[in-house]
Amino acid sequence: MKILFYGAGVLGSLYAARLQEAGQDVPILARGRRLADLKEHGVVLREATGTGKRTATRVGVVERLAQEDAYDLVVVIVRKNQLPSVLPALAGNGHTPDVLFMLNNAAGPRQIVDALGKERVLLGFPVAAGWREGHEVRHLVLPGWLQRMQKTPLGELDGRTSPRLGRIMGAFRVAGIPVEASPNMDAWLKTHASVVVPLELAVQAAGADVRRLSRTRDALVLLARAMRENLMVLRALGAPVTPGSLRMLAWLPEPLLASLLGRFFDTEFTEMGLGTHADDPLDELAQLAGELGDLSRAAGVPTPAADRLRGHLDPAAPPIPDGSARIPMDQHAAVVAALGAAVGALVVLRRSRSR
Ligand SMILES: NC(=O)c1ccc[n+]([C@@H]2O[C@H](COP(=O)([O-])OP(=O)(O)OC[C@H]3O[C@@H](n4cnc5c(N)ncnc54)[C@H](OP(=O)(O)O)[C@@H]3O)[C@@H](O)[C@H]2O)c1
Questions:
Q1: What is d(CA 51, CA 39) in angstroms, rounded to the nearest whole number?
Q2: Mutate to test the pocket of ligand 1, among 75, 77, 79, 192 (most ligand atoms within 8 A of CB)
Q3: Amino acid 194: pLDDT
Q4: Tens of pLDDT along 258-317?
Q5: Ligand 1 test: best mutation among 13, 63, 78, 139, most atoms within 8 Å of CB?
Q6: CA–CA gap between residue 208 and residue 258 (Å, rounded)
Q7: Is the dihedral of CA 102, 106, 112, 117 positive or negative?
Q8: How far is C-alpha 285 from the chain's CA centre?
Q9: DSSP per-residue codes, 99-168
Q10: MF terms per GO, please (predicted)?
Q11: Integer CA distances (angstroms), 11 to 17, 78, 110, 140, 254, in order
Q12: Mean of pLDDT over the chain
């Protein structure tokens, strides 16, 4: 397959290099300094964890997508706020039937469909993490079994498993990229943003310091509440939480969820992934937080904790004091869970006595 990668950043580079190494023809569209770096060095990847392996892959590099250029597939991997800048060239190109958008998006596919028409569009999400250091892309590598679970979701707008989706998934698999067909990619993306945006905002609220977030209970409580609020918005809009396992964020007792989140942030792996992102420009985060705000207004569901975290996008906003634990925890769910467990134990006890 001839696959153009539109966007030569962290994840465009990572996916493109893997597909090229597996024998596909994968030119990358780049601009500015990145264009010059790719021409000089190829795609240089270095593992930030694991063995620290470094690879350099030669790829074709193009500067624009012309009207008459023909590819079997274009994969768009840019930041969400950059999407409007790539749509005109894609709309003007009449020789590429299939365009796969792999980026964060809480607002739904309307903007893309309006520009390209719904027949050409597929959605996906790049499940990986990394950052740029000069001309190198450093990426996080999970331990083996977790890597196999880390599947890249891809889907048609209507959720069908079409022949072209099968072909694209096949090409990804041959490149060693685990994939899964998603029957509702829009719900997947909305759920992902509902969780990840508060997570990144909480890092900002803790002064862009992941370890500090891990020990600042108030930021963790706001994070737990913001994620819950966002999932309530999705529910009100009729968008199923996808994957369903994330529904547990809605029912786990707040003290337990805050404590689990604290542990999650207190690891070198999380610090590397989210800490580095915290240095990145906040333009996409602001865009996505705005999109979630629009969803909450459309659903008529207030999101006070999410709004409070969003305030930390303002560079003038003071971070939540290190270690602060003043917000009272919502013990309601914990009490209900404890009562439920006690009633259950009593029932079991009475039954066993009556035998
Ligand atoms: N990085 C991660 O760890 C990670 C993890 C999971 C998901 N994601 C998501 O994946 C998506 C892509 O992230 P990323 O980290 O790969 O972003 P990135 O490193 O910022 O890459 C975006 C690339 O697209 C280029 N670009 C944007 N508009 C363009 C245009 N009109 N013409 C040509 N090139 C253009 C950018 O060029 P310039 O640099 O010149 O702007 C940049 O090279 C985002 O939605 C992100 O949230 C990222």
A1: 27
A2: 79
A3: 98
A4: 999 999 999 988 888 887 655 578 999 999 999 999 999 999 999 999 999 999 999 899
A5: 78
A6: 18
A7: positive
A8: 11
A9: EEEES--SS-SHHHHHHH-GGGEEEE-----EEEETTEEEE----HHHHHH-PEEEEETT----HHHHHH
A10: 2-dehydropantoate 2-reductase activity
A11: 10, 9, 24, 11, 34
A12: 93
**pLDDT at 66 (0 to 100):** 96
Helices and strands of the chain, counted as H and E runs: 15, 12
Six token digits for residue 301: 């569901």
Pocket of ligand 1 (CB under 6 A): 7-12, 29, 31-32, 34, 77-80, 82, 85-86, 103-104, 126, 129-130, 284
Distance 262 CA to ligand 1 centre (A): 29
Q: Is the pLDDT of residue 110 over 60?
A: yes
Q: How confident is the model at residue 334 (pLDDT cuts 50, 70, 90)?
A: low
- The ligand 1 atom at the shortest distance from the C-alpha of residue 140 is 3
Reference 1, options 151, 16, 37, 289; nearest CA is: 16
Q: Which domains, and CATH codes, for the chain?
A: 3-183 (3.40.50.720), 187-336 (1.10.1040)
Residue 342: per-residue pLDDT: 67
